[in-house]
Amino acid sequence: MRFNRAPLFLRKKRKPRRRARGGRSRGAVLFVDSKASAVGVDPTLRFVLGLLAVVGLTALIVYGLILGGRTMGRSLFSNNLEYSMAHIETRSDGVLKSDQLLHFAQLKPGENLFGFKLSEVRDRLEKEPIIKTARVRRQLPDRLYIEVKERVPIARLGRASNRINRLLDVDGVIIGKAFDAKHLPFILGDTAAASAGLGDSIGNGRSRDALVALSIYLDQRLDRYMEIQSIIVGSPEYLDIRLQNGTRLKLPRDQIKSGLEHAVAGLAKAREVGRVIQLIDFVPSIDNPIVTYL
Length: 294
Known about the structure:
Layout (H helix, E strand, L loop, with lengths): L25 H14 L3 H36 L8 E6 L5 H8 L12 H9 L4 E9 L3 E8 L4 E3 L7 E4 L5 E5 L7 E3 L19 H12 L8 E5 L5 E6 L4 E5 L3 H17 L4 E5 L8 E4 L1
């Protein structure tokens, strides 16, 4: 009789295979762990890397569009001979001439109409002390308009004995020097203004109230009744106004308008009776000033 299998007493007993914790064999655990460590990537890191790639690509596209737009703009406008300035029209409400405005603007006919920024031309014009505001605009294909509003001098700053004085506008901006401006009154006694230069403003110092007084004086045409020669601003309490006829007015700084109106009325009454006033002191009272006659 043949047996296909060995008898039971001749068979070797096999040792049972030990299993790792969790019910898996040690080899299987090692295989799975090594596979996970090889292909596993932090999801946050993967998101950040993807985001950086998108941002970088977007930046390149935008840069390319800007560069291409500039190149196209130069070819269509700033390098186009059809936009050469054939006409530059200037207008000023004061004394400035066309050649002076073009010099301030640093422009000349024949330049390309798009070869500069309008804002830069405007800023160059408004840097000049005499120019208060400027407006610059293009008209295609070859015309440029420049329009300026000048500062108007209303007073002189300096000493009455000096031949050359500095001119002030209503804002207190020093707009230039004057060789012949005898019709303008002086503002005297502002020691802080001595160091101010062209284009600087002294409108926030002691001269401020004097500028207010002169503005009222001009707006209400009070020059028809009295002529201001100078305003001394040394006192912090009042303005010391000297008239061409020798009369002196002391006006409180907080009642300038009413003080000027009362002064005009007092001077008119004095002329009616043929008297000359030496001093009207409004500091004690606006309604009942101290009046001294010659």
